[in-house]
Amino acid sequence: MNRGGAATRGSWQLALLLVWAIVLGVAAPRLAPAGNPRPSRDAVVKKMQPYDGEHQAGVDTSTLTGKLMAGYQGWFTAAGDGSGLGWQHYSSAGEFRPGKCNIELWPDVSELDGDEKFATPFKHADGSPAPVFSSDVQKTVLRHFRWMREYGIDGVFVQRFSVSTFSPNSLQHCNQVLMSCRRGANENGRCYAVMYDLSGLGPGGIDRTIEDWKLLVDRMRIGHDERDHGYLHHQGHPVVAVWGIGFNDHRRYTLEECGKLIAFLKDDPTYGGNTVMVGVPTGWRTLDRDTEKSDLIDKIVLKADIVSPWTVGRYDSPAGADRHAKHDWQPDVKWCQEHKKEYLPVVFPGFSWHNMRPSSPFNQIPRLKGEFLWRQFVDVKKAGATMVYQAMFDEMDEGTAIFKITNDPPAGESRFVTPEGLPTDQYLWLAGQGARLLRGEIEPSEHVPDRPPAKPSATKSE
After folding, report:
1. Which residues, at least 6 apart from 119, have a Cβ–Cβ distance to it below 8 Å?
2. CA dist 448 to 176, 370, 373, 401, Å?
3. Which element (helix H / strand E) includes 379?
4. Which pairs from 420-427 meet CB under 8 Å and 24+ separation?
5. Based on the number of CB atoms within 10 Å of its own CB, is 161 exposed (0-12), middle (13-18) or buried (19 or more)?
6. pLDDT given for residue 19 in this prediction
7. What are phi and psi of 228, to 5 degrees?
8. 53, 228 Cβ separation under 8 angstroms
C-alpha cells in the first residue's frame, strides 16, 4: 500500500513525502466527466445503509488470533467505470499510457468478465489489448473475496484514507469499496475491518476522521449490524485500525490528536467500545529509525489493544528478514506479552515503484519466487506471533500485491514486475500457506513449500 517508509537504504523519509503527495492528489476534488455529474455529499450519505445481504459461514469473525489479514487498498479506478475519478492510482501525472503509469504490476484479468475490464492504451507483446480492472466495480471486489476463500486468506483491513472522505466523489468511492468488501466477506465466509490511514491529514483532519466513524456507525451500522456477520471482532468488540501514528516524517497532525482519536474509539459512550489497532513505525518501541521521539507513542500504544509496526522496505532479503526478526519482532512480541497487548507483524512479498518514481531501481526488493515472503512467515511464527498482516492484497503502486498478476505484462516503455514464470496466483497460494503455518497446520521449512500440481479443469458435457 502506498504507506510511509516503503523505500530502503535511508530514502524512506522522502518516500513518505511522496506518498503524501499521491494521497492528497487522490483526495483532491475532481471534475466528473460530462454525463456523470458530481454527487452532493447528502446524496452520497443517503446511499450508506446497513447490510441487507446473505451470509455464508466460514472463518471465526470473533477473533483476530490465528488469522492472516491482508490490506485492501481498493483505490484503483478506471475511465468509464462510473466513479468519475478517472484513472485513479493507475495514472502518473494525470496520464495512463506506455511510459506514464503508477503501477508496478499488471493485474491478471483473464478470469474477469467483459463488464469488469477497462480498455487502456497498453498492448501485450503480441499486439493484443491489455485491459485493467476497477475497484469501484462490486463484481470484481466480490471476485477478490472468492479468491481469498479459495486460497485460505482470512480477510482484509479495508483501507479508508481519511483525506479521501472529504469530497463527495472520493467519499462515494470509499463507501462503494467498503460496501463491496462487506458483501464479499459475508458471502464468502471471510472477515473485514475498517482501517483509517491518516496520511495527508492537515489541521482538523482528526476531527473529520471522528465524524466519519460516526457516519459509518450511524448510517451503515459498521461493527454493530446484526446481519453483518463478516465484521471482525476481537476481545468481544469490533476491530478498528488507525494507521500512521508516530512517524517522524513531518506529518501535519500531532500525536496529541492521535491520542484523542484512540480515546474516542475506545471510550466514547456511543461510538466507542472498540478493539483498536494502531499502525506505528518499526521503531515504535525503541524510538529510533523512522519514529518520532516522544513518550506519547508509548502512551498511545498502551491505550490501544493491538500494535502493528510497518515494515515494508525495512529489510530487503531473506537474511535481512532474519535480522529484523531478532532486532524487532522477537523483542516486540515480548514487550506486548508483558503489557497484555496483541502484536500484528507486517510481511510483504517484495517491493518496487520504479514506474511511479523512475529514480528508484526497478524490482527494488525482489520476490525471489516467494522465498522472501516465506522467510518472513517462518520468522514471525518463530518470534511467537499469533496473527499476521499481509501487505497487500491489491497494491500495484508499490509492487506488494499478492493477488493474481500476469507473466505477460504490456510491452513498451513501462516495466512491470512479474511472478517470474510461476503461476499468476502463486502469492495467493503462498499467503494461504503462511496462514496455515501461523496456525500450526504445517511445519516451518527452510524453503517455499512445494505446491501440488493444479487439478485439471472439469469439462462440461455437451
Report:
1. 129, 131
2. 37, 7, 9, 18
3. helix 371-383
4. 420/367, 420/369, 422/369, 422/370, 423/451, 423/454, 424/108, 424/110, 425/108, 425/147, 425/151, 426/369, 426/370, 426/451, 427/349, 427/367, 427/370, 427/373, 427/401, 427/402, 427/403
5. buried
6. 44
7. -90, 90
8. no
Contact by Cβ (8 Å): 262, 299? no
Cell numbers standing for residue 4: 510511509
H, E, C per residue of 315-358: CCCHHHHHHHHHHHHHHHHHHHHHCCCEECCEECCCECCCCCCC
Annotate 56-68 with b (16+ C-beta within 10 A) or e (fewer).
Answer: eebbebebbebbb
The rounded distance, in Å, linking the Cα atoms of 277 and 48 is 24
Question: How does DSSP assign 123-189, residue by residue?
Answer: B-TTS-B--B--TT-HHHHHHHHHHHHHHT--EEEEEEEGGGGSSHHHHHHHHHHHHHHHHHHHHTT
Cα 280 versus chain centre, distance: 15
pLDDT of residue 21: 42
Distance between CA atoms of residues 223 and 41, nearest Å: 23
Q: Are 9 and 252 in contact (CB under 8 A)?
A: no
pLDDT at 37: 66
Whether residue 213 contacts residue 198, with contact meaning beta carbons closer than 8 Å, is answered with: no
Is 0.85 topped by the overall pTM?
A: yes
User: Which cell is 11 given?
Assistant: 530514502
Compute mean pLDDT per 10 residues along the chain, 462 residues long, and list them.
45 42 38 59 97 97 98 98 96 94 98 98 96 98 98 98 96 98 98 97 96 98 97 98 95 96 98 98 94 95 98 97 98 98 98 96 98 98 98 98 98 94 98 98 96 65 34
